[in-house]
User: Fold these one by one.
Assistant:
Number 1:
Amino acid sequence: MPHWIVPLAAHGAHSFAIELGRYLVAAGIMSLILWAGARWTAARRIQKRSPAKGDRAREFGHSMLSVGIFALWSIATLAMNQAGIIHVAFTAPLWWQVALEFVAIVLAHDAYFYWMHRGLHTKAMFRRAHLTHHKSRTPTPWAAYSFAPIEGVFEGLFLPLFLLFVPMHGIVVLAFLLHQIGRNVLGHSGHELMPPGFTRFPLTAWLTTATHHDLHHSGGGHNFGLYFTWWDRWLGTEHPRYHESFEAAAVPWFGARPRLTPSSE
Ligand SMILES: [Zn+2]
Ligand SMILES: [Zn+2]
């Protein structure tokens, strides 16, 4: 047996466990919040429709495959770092380096995702690469990694590709990965937890909401963005009823009696 088999298998198992843990913890916490806080969250449901029977199991199954693909990307990224092709530093950075690197990688990922996502919605790609994700018309947090293998490869490609051009600190890469899964499960939560006015208030209007991505799942051809609303606004792909749908689902955090039924589709 070649000498590299055992360390590679150990790397693989380790990477798989980390990717799996990230998914299980994030989707699990979001599901727990929605379940345990149902008195507060039920009125904030975005769609009238409930997830179909078996939706969660299907989303979970496809996500397991994606976790495997991400683990392979993570092995490739570690190998590239060891070979000196990319540079991830495990030294302690200064606070402004952390801030600068984090902003850079999040902005780059947002742009990458928007254009990759537009590509996945082309006739040539949709059926083979993106239909799996869109089987969730009423998404749940477990849809976060529910991708066809080709989409999983494209989703995982971003990090090593970015690191080829920009050296980073390990702690920033970790923060990026946590922010990514956190925003991802929030976007698929099926509940609008932000208060009314959020999509129009200048300090928050540039952030996407759960309604933003939920409309992408229920309606299709709009809202391709990930973290920020900019690309959809610049390119005219924002859902025409985004603000209206958001306001229909959002409930004030304090002082108002929550609605008992969701009022938007
Ligand atoms: Zn899509
Ligand atoms: Zn989605």
Number 2:
Amino acid sequence: MEQVTDGVYYVGVNDHLTELFEGLWPIPEGISYNSYIVKGEKTALIDTVKIPFVDEFLKNVEKATLFNIDYIILNHVEPDHSSSLLRLLEKVPNAEILCSNKAKGMLDTLYRVTDNVRTVEEGETLDLGGRTLTFYMDPLVHWPETMVTYDNQDGILFSCDAFGSYKALDFGIFDDKCDPDIFYEETIRYFSNIVAKYVKYVKKAMDKLSVLDIKIIAPAHGLVWRKDPQRIIDLYVRLSERMALPGVTVIWGSMYGNTAKVVNSVVDGIKEEGVPVVVLNFSKDHLSYLIKETWKHKGVILGFPTYDGGPFLNTSYYLHLLKRKDLRERIAGFFGSSMWSGRALKQAAEQVQELDWEIVEPLLEFKGLPTDEVLEQAKELGRTIARKVKE
Ligand SMILES: Cc1cc2nc3c(=O)[nH]c(=O)nc-3n(C[C@H](O)[C@H](O)[C@H](O)COP(=O)(O)O)c2cc1C
Ligand SMILES: [Fe+2]
Ligand SMILES: [Fe+2]
């Protein structure tokens, strides 16, 4: 059990068992479910953990409170933060549950919990005696019922999924104890996979929270940012503006190596312009990482063959996900091999135009092996897109 500040304790757990978060996103380095105890004269617990880890969680809570808990604050009802509620209530049956109005209905549908539930409003304050907590509604970051809790005494924002990341807290919970760069990247991946669809609402939330004097960011996943909270706040502001750093993500797929032969030329062109480039593969890299890098950089160059009259299958799924995640406004180029009908690149370009992507011509479709002329055009495509992302 770690102390965050005087009277505030971390009682969360690490999950190294789940392979795919939400059944979708790989978490090779695990994830944490963060829960906190805040003590004034009265004691509040903020958010619980995913049910498989309830025993460890309850041990932490007992150590921190001897189960003297007056309030259970639920910022978010998604089961990674709420599913230990029933087991917790067995230990603290008289605790009052505080949550948003929408969360109240969800607690009934998910857990049949209706007793001792009090709804709180935007800006409402809870007096713990010696310290107060204020609640701010944070709809759609990540569900409609989500809120955040602000500790007025120490300036701690208990932000739930916002500012959260993948990766378990194996080496301590603070940004000054772990390598924050890894968590920084995992925050971008978590955001692009899970929160990105609601980016409009993240922007609203960031504007609203900007008036608070935040000294510590304590999310429900990943690091507690106490040394440099501004770093993660700045990242979130950037993410809420769709990030788009001046770099290029190259993603390619190839069945028989023809499309593959063009990749180096594209990358060389980008490098000539001194622009950062990340190269990923449609067959080997998980969509989680493809979406992350596409979110991160302004430029995207996609290489893939025609397959059954359309794009390579994994590319199709990626293109579909771009739409589902509302990944808008990139500068893009395309290359790829075909044998008879072609058309894959044109179809892909049409799909991303709906997301306001700027397509850089020509669509570099070629039959079979790339010619020297195609390789030269590919290099030029890399240069052009690199120049555009620098503008
Ligand atoms: C299962 C399969 C389906 C294909 N469908 C098409 C197609 O509909 N139209 C087309 O022009 N070429 C089609 N092709 C041919 C490939 O696009 C062509 O072989 C290309 O050179 C493969 O590029 P790669 O070596 O990068 O995998 C298909 C190939 C395979 C193996
Ligand atoms: Fe969530
Ligand atoms: Fe979560």
